[in-house]
Design brief:
- This protein has about 70 residues and is mainly alpha-helical.
- The protein folds into two domains: about 30 residues; about 35 residues.
- The chain contains two helices and two strands, in the order ββαα.
- A two-stranded antiparallel ribbon has the order 1-2.
- A hairpin with a 4-residue loop joins strand 1 and strand 2.
C-alpha cells in the first residue's frame, strides 16, 4: 500500500482519519520535526554557538558592571 501524496509505503493507520499514512504524512500531520544525521550536526553547532554567545554576554555584563563601578 502506497501513500498517494508521497508514493511511500503507508504503514501507519489513523483511527481519526480512518486511513493509512506514510512516515512523511505522519510527521507533517503531527507537526513534528524530523531530524536526520545531517540536521543533527547543524543543531549541535547551533547549540555550541548559542552557549558561547551566552558566556560572552555574561562575561561582558560583568566587565561592564565593573567599569560602571570604577567610574
Amino acid at each position: 500500500m502506497l501513500c498517494e501524496e508521497h508514493k511511500s509505503p503507508a504503514v501507519f493507520f489513523s483511527n481519526e482519519a480512518q486511513k493509512y499514512f506514510c512516515f512523511k504524512c505522519l510527521v507533517t500531520s503531527s507537526k513534528l520535526l524530523f531530524i536526520d544525521t545531517n540536521y543533527k550536526t547543524e543543531i549541535e553547532d547551533f547549540e555550541r554557538i548559542k552557549k558561547l554567545t551566552e558566556d560572552s554576554v555574561s562575561s561582558t555584563e560583568k566587565l561592564t558592571n565593573n567599569l560602571h563601578e570604577w567610574r
